[in-house]
Amino acid sequence: MKTQAFALAALLATQAFADEVAFDFKDPKGVNNIVFKLDAPLESISGTTNGISGTISADPAEPEDIKGKIIVDAKTLTVPNPMMQEHMLGAEWLDTAKHPEITFEIKEVLNSKKDGNGGTADVKGIFTLKGVSKEVVVPVKVTYLPGRLADRTGGKMQGDLLVVRTNFQINRGDYGIKQGENLDKVSDVIDISLALAGAAPKK
Amino acid sequence: MKFPFRTATRLLALFILSTCLSWWWFSGADMGWTKTYITIPATDEITGISYEVKQEKFIPGVDFVALGTGLSFAIFAASFLFSKQKSQTL
Q1: Which of A150, A190, B25, B40 has a CA-to-CA distance to B6 between 20 and 30 Å?
Q2: Complex ipTM more than 0.90, yes or no
Q3: Which residues of A touch B35 (CB under 8 A)?
Q4: Cα–Cα dist B5/B1, whole Å
């Protein structure tokens, strides 16, 4: 009887995790992108990065059950002006030599709403920039595309795609980036937009 | 052709100023910062993700104009260091 109960528990546990899929967000096509914008008197400063990696584990049937971490290689952040780029990556601003990664780690999913093959939710997580970690809540839109990895890879790989989109704001001063300084030249608020597709190849 | 050195220096300043302004004007007279690439919007057909494709292109901005103007004024000012000479060869 005891053995049977243990076997049933093991079976249920296996079933519970069977549908969880790990999506890899390293995108060789360079489509995954993060755009950041800061207001400035002459023109707003807009930059991008494609240096994104990380994994998100999700159960498409349970949108609130998402966990994982997105990592950005800070040195891949670019702005169109070379001098501005040098300053941005330098010690006074992002100090990418000492803090080479910007990360967002998912902690909890709130207010999830399922809509067809996707849904929306508020994701609570730890955002780390320039070595400073803070809890943030960001609105996320997730779209699950079952079997579409083959279309993206020309049939070389079979699997699913998970598209994650979000837009949120942070204050650079909160992360030790020239707190209270240069506010006449560039705003404190950084507007961040992410559009990422993760791939889960079928083995 | 013979130019007094002072005149030659001033012609150089004029050349730098006009080249700088012309380059900026004919590149679209961008009122922002100088850019070394532009972005072309694109959309991934499968995921629907909008992204930007970078294309290398030099777009002079107001900092380029300021640098060129400053340099030409500095050269013009330096021309006063040379005395007026009627027949100095370049």
Answers
A1: B25
A2: no
A3: 80-81
A4: 12
A152: which chain B residues are within 8 Å (Cβ-Cβ)? 46-47
Summarize pLDDT for A24-34 with one digit per residue, the tens. 999 988 899 99
| Residue A12 three-state SS | helix
Which residues contact residue A187 at a Cβ distance below 8 angstroms, ignoring those fewer than 6 apart?
Answer: A38, A39, A40
> Cβ of B35 under 8 Å from any chain A Cβ?
yes
Residue B62 and residue A80: Cβ atoms within 8 Å? no
Residues of chain B neighbouring A80 (CB-CB closer than 8 A): 33, 35-39, 59
Residues in chain A: 203
**Do A25 and A50 meet the contact criterion of CB atoms below 8 Å apart?**
no
Find the helix or strand (DSSP H, E) in which A11 lies.
helix A2-18
Best CA proximity match to A164, nearest among A38, A48, A63, A37:
A63
Distance of CA A42 to the CA centre of its chain: 30
Select the residue from A34, A37, A81, A186 to test the B interface by mutation, using most B Cβ atoms within 10 A: A81
User: 């950005």: which residue's tokens?
Assistant: A72
Closest Cβ opposite residue B49 in set A42, A83, A195: A195
d(CA A3, CA A168): 51
